[in-house]
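lol forgot to send this yesterday, sorry. struct tokens for the thing we talked abt
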């Protein structure tokens, strides 16, 4: 990595834009960055770090970058850092702008602009810069990837801070571990330690969880086995728990199997007794059943004998009913004929009641003839019907013509009235349109004057406010100026008083036998004495500090006054000299005129629309008047034709209506008469037919009753049974027959008769014996089942316990292995003799590399006297691994680096810093660092040591590397010609190149 150019604007102590040409400085190889204390030497290095990483080193970074802004910068100048460098063969330009509180463009106060970042790359072929990104995250990732270092590593490798390494030499192992851990990113090894500890805890928890489950199964086995099993007195995780549980389970299973064998034998004996008792009970129940069956059959036979008379009557009734079934069809036919005759006679009577008395004695043929004659007359009325319908149409059309004539008269009258006022209406509407157009033009003119008037009024109000602010600022500036003059006079007065009494102050420092700092004499016969009111250096310094603060406040108030006057002048130029009240009144009057003009102009469109509608209405009324006149002429001819046709139709209809009110009424009379005559004729013919059918049915019924053996048809009808009565009677007969057969069958059974001859059966005694045997069987079976369940549950729990022990075996092995590794990496294992943690071990290896790289330069700077070595010895009861010693070749002894003197500490610190830079560079992938900075520490060296150090630094220039020394040692300005000088003034610091 090589730096080419750095541009700073409003950054740190630099108020204006400053530039650093690193190419010119690097040409000399070794250059000096010097300047007074507080001028901003470190700020140059901060700017390089901020350009690359967006932050500055250490505690100087605070907030969100707002503290990076220079207090000397103008309010309109934004803080910016631009760095041009070459890294990994690519020439890049990074520009960063931190967040900025700038004055608002409108109004008062400030607003916060976000941070900005640009990354560009120089295209050698196109000889132009190419934009790469404007994203903070993308640019940060790109730079970190190219450099291969974090910000902490960069600050230790490129910006070598000597003070930090001097503290590193004197620090304990913990502080060294923190620094090295940040530089070499050994967090992953600490994560390994943490991960192993977590795995150890997790494995231990799983082992305890498995043992708890095993003990839970053991408790369940004890509940099943009872007193046959004793639990081991061990806790989860203790050795031997699994073997003890499995042994106790084996004893419990053996005892349970013995108990199961005894229970099975008892169950077999109970089953035999139960079988014998059940067989005896079945025999007694069968004997009791047969005896009851025989007794019941004898009772049923007695009941059948008592109901023999009823049975014979039922048989006779069934025989008569079966004979009457042959007469049933004739009876049904006669009843149907009689019903049909009654209905036909009633219908004939109803039809004749509707006819005139002239048709009372007419038969069916006479009624049919009268119906034919009425139908012929009805057919002759069709022509009269058409004439009647045409007459209605003629009357309707004549009425429509009359209505149309009245409507046309109204249209003509209204049109004439409206058209008479047309000229006056049109003139009024045109006048309104002209007035609205003039108002619209006036509104446009006034609108163009409104915005300038508002701006001028706003400027006038701002002018008044700024005038008050300027007066206040002027009074404040005058007061601060007076106070500054008084503070300066007070300081000068105290300074003069101190100079007057400086002899007494010098005399207070004299020591007997020591030379005077003024005259060199060792005798002091009459030293001066301090007088009353003597002013010492501390009082003078306080007065000077008060004077400087007053001067700073005066300058700040004067700048505020100048700013207020500039703003007042700008506002006065915009507003003029007119009073604010006058401008406000003019603006209000202008707004009122504009509002009136807008309201008047808004009537333009309605007036134009109203005129357009009025013209359209005039055209419509003219057309309506013309059409009405044409319709009136055509109506005269049509009305005459309709009158002639109306008279002809009236004459024809008078002949067809006769006495009826209309042809339709006459036709309705004839249609009703035809319908009534036709219905009466049909009813008369139906009555004659049904009377003949009824006579034939009476003859057939009498013949059927005679053949069936009945004297009269009425006797046959009385013997008939309906379906319900017939089925009930048949069921009674069938049940009697079935009952007689069943009784005979039971009484004929041999085993039933034999059982009836035996003594009565004792069923209760047999049931008591069987119940006792069943109870004994259930108890034996329950005992057997209990032992079976116990054995099965013990077998299941034992198998699960065995499986759990088998599954826990690899987990126990893993736990032992992880626990050993966790203790080893944590430094608590007995195998780790030095109690060194894994991260400390890795850092010790890195520290050993750093010490070896630092020794190469330390031996050269110390003329081969000192060598840095890494020590992993333990200190007291603590842990080892990060010790650092120095070997003195003159004495041959090894001692701690904290015992080095100031100059020796500088040697060791510088060598350690350079060695660390080499190791971190190799760790970052071998990125070549062509620009290095070394900060302070040279003031503690004598001339010879300084020459040796400069020779070592000069050797760093090999292969075109440049080294910048940051120091205010005056001797370095004589030895190093290429210089970057930082000067400070009241308006901010500035950068200047010398010797290039």
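and heres what i got for the seq, position by position
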């Amino acid at each position: 990595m090589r730096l080419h150019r750095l541009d700073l604007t409003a950054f740190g102590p630099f108020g204006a834009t400053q530039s650093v040409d690193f190419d010119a400085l690097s040409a000399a190889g070794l250059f000096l960055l010097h300047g007074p204390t507080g001028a901003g030497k470190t700020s140059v290095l901060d700017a390089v770090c901020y350009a690359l990483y967006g932050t500055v080193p250490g505690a100087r970074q605070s907030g969100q970058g707002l503290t990076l802004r220079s207090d000397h910068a103008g309010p309109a100048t934004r803080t910016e850092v631009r760095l041009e460098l070459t890294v990994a063969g690519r020439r890049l330009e990074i520009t960063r702008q931190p967040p900025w509180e700038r004055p608002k463009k409108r109004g008062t106060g400030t607003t916060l602009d976000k941070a900005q970042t640009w990354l560009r790359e120089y295209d050698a072929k196109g000889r132009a810069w190419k934009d790469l990104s404007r994203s903070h995250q993308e640019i940060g990732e790109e730079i970190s990837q190219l450099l291969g270092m974090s910000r902490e590593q960069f600050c230790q490798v490129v910006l070598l801070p000597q003070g930090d390494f001097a503290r590193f030499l004197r620090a304990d192992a913990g502080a060294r571990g923190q620094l090295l851990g940040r530089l070499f990113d050994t967090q992953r090894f600490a994560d390994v330690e943490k991960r192993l500890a977590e795995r150890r805890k997790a494995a231990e928890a799983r082992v305890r969880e498995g043992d708890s489950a095993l003990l839970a199964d053991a408790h369940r086995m004890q509940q099943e086995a009872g007193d046959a099993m004793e639990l081991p007195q061990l806790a989860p995780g203790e050795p031997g728990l699994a073997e003890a549980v499995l042994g106790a389970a084996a004893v419990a299973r053996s005892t349970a199997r013995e108990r199961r064998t005894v229970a099975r034998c008892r169950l077999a004996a109970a089953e035999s007794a139960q079988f014998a008792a059940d067989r005896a009970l079945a025999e007694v129940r069968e004997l009791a059943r047969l005896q009851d069956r025989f007794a019941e059959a004898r009772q049923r036979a007695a009941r059948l004998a008592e109901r023999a008379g009823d049975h014979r009557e039922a048989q006779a009734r069934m025989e008569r009913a079966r004979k009457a079934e042959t007469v049933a069809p004739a009876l049904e036919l006669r009843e149907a004929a009689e019903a049909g005759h009654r209905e036909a006679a009633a219908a004939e009577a109803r039809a004749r009641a509707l006819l005139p008395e002239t048709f009372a004695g007419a038969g069916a043929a006479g009624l049919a003839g009268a119906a034919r004659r009425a139908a012929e007359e009805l057919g002759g009325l069709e022509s009269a019907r058409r004439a009647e319908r045409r007459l209605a149409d003629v009357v309707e059309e004549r009425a429509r013509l009359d209505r149309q004539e009245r409507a046309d008269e109204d249209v003509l009258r209204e049109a004439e009235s409206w058209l008479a006022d047309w000229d006056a209406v049109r003139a009024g509407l045109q006048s309104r349109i002209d007035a609205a157009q003039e108002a619209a033009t006036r509104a446009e003119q006034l609108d163009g004057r409104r915005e300038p008037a508002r701006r001028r009024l706003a400027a006038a109000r701002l002018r008044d406010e700024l005038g008050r602010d300027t007066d206040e600022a002027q009074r404040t500036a005058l007061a601060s100026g007076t106070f500054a003059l008084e503070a300066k006079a007070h300081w000068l007065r105290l300074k003069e008083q101190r100079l007057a009494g400086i002899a007494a102050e010098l005399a207070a420092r004299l020591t007997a036998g020591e030379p005077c700092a003024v005259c060199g004499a060792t005798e002091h016969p009459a030293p001066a004495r301090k007088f009353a009111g003597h002013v010492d250096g501390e009082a003078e310094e306080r007065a000077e500090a008060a004077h400087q603060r007053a001067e700073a406040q005066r300058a700040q108030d004067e700048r505020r006054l100048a700013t207020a006057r500039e703003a007042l002048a700008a506002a006065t130029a915009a507003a003029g000299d007119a009073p604010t009240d006058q401008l406000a009144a003019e603006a209000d009057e202008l707004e009122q005129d504009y509002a009136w003009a807008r309201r008047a102009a808004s009537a333009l469109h309605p007036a134009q629309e109203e005129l357009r509608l009025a013209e359209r209405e005039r055209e419509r009324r003219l057309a309506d008047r013309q059409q009405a006149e044409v319709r009136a002429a055509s109506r005269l001819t049509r009305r005459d034709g309709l009158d002639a046709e109306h008279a002809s139709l009236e004459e024809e209809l008078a002949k067809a209506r006769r006495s009826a009110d209309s042809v339709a009424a006459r036709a309705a009379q004839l249609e009703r008469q035809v319908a009534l005559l036709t219905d009466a004729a049909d009813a008369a013919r139906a009555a004659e037919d049904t009377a003949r059918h009824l006579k034939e049915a009476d003859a057939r019924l009498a013949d059927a009753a005679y053949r069936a053996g009945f004297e009269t048809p009425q006797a046959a009808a009385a013997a008939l049974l309906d379906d319900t009565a017939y089925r009930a009677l048949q069921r009674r007969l069938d049940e009697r027959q079935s009952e007689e057969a069943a009784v005979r069958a039971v009484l004929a059974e041999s085993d039933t008769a034999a059982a009836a001859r035996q003594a009565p059966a004792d069923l209760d005694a047999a049931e008591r014996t069987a119940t006792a045997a069943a109870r004994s069987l259930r108890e034996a079976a329950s005992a057997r089942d209990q032992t079976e369940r116990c054995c099965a549950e013990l077998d299941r729990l034992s198998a699960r316990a065995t499986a759990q022990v088998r599954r826990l075996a690899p987990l126990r092995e893993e736990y032992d292995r992880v626990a050993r590794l966790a203790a080893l990496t944590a430094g608590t294992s007995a195998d780790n003799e030095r109690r060194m943690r894994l991260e400390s071990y890795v850092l010790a290896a890195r520290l050993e590399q750093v010490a070896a790289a630092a020794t190469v330069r330390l031996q050269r700077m110390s003329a081969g006297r000192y060598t840095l070595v890494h020590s992993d010895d333990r200190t007291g009861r603590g842990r080892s691994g990060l010790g650092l010693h120095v070997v003195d070749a003159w004495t041959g002894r090894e001692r701690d680096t904290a015992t080095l003197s100031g100059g020796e500490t500088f040697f060791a610190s510088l060598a350690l810093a350079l060695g660390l830079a080499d190791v971190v560079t190799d760790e970052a992938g071998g990125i070549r660092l062509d620009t290095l900075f070394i900060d302070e520490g040279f003031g503690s060296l004598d001339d010879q040591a300084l020459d040796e150090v400069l020779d070592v630094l000069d050797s760093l220039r090999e292969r075109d590397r440049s080294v910048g020394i940051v120091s205010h040692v005056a001797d370095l300005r004589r030895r190093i010609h290429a210089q970057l000088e930082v000067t400070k003034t009241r308006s901010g610091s500035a950068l200047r190149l010398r010797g290039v």
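The chain is about 70% helix and 10% strand. anyway ping me if u want another try
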